[in-house]
Amino acid sequence: MSRRTTVGLFAAALTALMTTACSTVMVPVSPGDSSGLGRETVRVGIAYDSAGRGDKSFNDAAAAGIDRAKQELLVEAAEAKTQAETDEAREAALRGLATGGSNPVIAVGFLYAGAIGTVAKEFPDTLFAIIDDDSVTADNVVSLLFSEEQGSYLVGVAAALATRRNRVGFVGGVDVALIHKFEAGYVAGVHSVDPGIRVDVRYLTKPPDFGGFGAPAKGKTAAARLIADGADVVYAAAGGSGTGVFDAVAAAGNTWAIGVDSDQYATASEAVRPRILTSMLKRVDNGVFQEIQAFVKGDRAGGKKRYDLKVDGVGYATSNSKLGPYRSGMDKARYRVLAGAVKVPVS
């Protein structure tokens, strides 16, 4: 065999080896690891609320982040959801994921705050992340927070530009501080265009009843009342209850709905899709993916991470071409917020 042939075979073998090595994401383990391998495969756990995947809103946005991480970072994933709306059920979901070897474990929603405070103490070597809550301070807990008011401000501008009756509506799932941020931003956006536009507000439930995030019938009733009172644009910040809002808007005709969290135009039924003007995008998918990416790179610290307009943490959907006439106004509003000329209220 010639020297040239031998060198060529060696190069080919080395290329194949490097390709194989790059096909699996591996990260360094802690110095105390006793496996002898010095490497570990990342297994992510995610705990949804009782709606789980398929809510076409908040949970699905988080699920999209997991799916992207599985594809791009080649991590493994385990999923769970609560079987009841209690702290005990949420603790069981988190504990099951951690016991099964998931690290990090991501909790979808502020209702997991109490459970994460308990379970994180039981698993000090596991990193827990919680979306929409910063009340738990621990070395192994990271809060993923979003500037919902900024995205809501932009869709409020759209509502003000689209209304013909100078009257718009807001449906909140549960009367809590988090949803007040959506309301405050929306109202501010509407009034930035025309302070004379009336904004009617309805909440579906109050704590301790958190069922307003999964009650489409209540959403439909609330939206129908707003429309009957004269609103011709209705923004739904109500999780799974938003489908009921869309049904009411579609039935009324000549009325617009604005979705939330994910691009709800893309997942709506054919009957209601044409009436969804836009959606406020809360990029939970980006937050989940970036947290997993940071973990893969070795960031295992607790603390707080904020996702706002500057980092594409919030925004608005452009799937419906009917939004076209209003996009210039929305973009100008976005630039004002980014430049600091507008500080969007949170309450």
The value of Rg in angstroms is 23 Å
H/E series: HEEEHEHEHEEHEHEHEHEHEHEEH
Kindly give the count of domains. Answer: 2
Number of helix segments? 11
What is the overall shape?
A: globular
Membrane topology: Lipid-anchor
GO cellular component, one term: plasma membrane
Family: Belongs to the BMP lipoprotein family.
InterPro entries: BMP_lipoprotein, Peripla_BP_I, PnrA-like
Structure description:
The protein starts with a helix and ends in an 8-residue tail after the last helix. The protein is α/β, with parallel strands linked by helices and 347 residues long. Residues 1-38 have low confidence and may be disordered. It is built from eleven helices and 14 strands. A six-stranded parallel β-sheet has the order 4-3-5-6-7-13, sandwiched between helices. The chain has a six-stranded mixed β-sheet with strand order 9-8-10-11-12-14, sandwiched between helices. The protein folds into two domains: 27-146 and 285-310, Response regulator (Rossmann fold), CATH 3.40.50; 148-282 and 317-339, Response regulator (Rossmann fold, 3-Layer(aba) Sandwich). Helix 2 (58-72) runs parallel beside helix 10 (284-296), helix 5 (148-162) runs antiparallel to helix 11 and helix 7 (216-228) packs parallel to helix 8 (242-252). Helix 4 links the parallel strand 5 and strand 6. Helices cover 42% and strands 21% of the residues. Belongs to the BMP lipoprotein family. Residues 1-23 form the signal peptide.
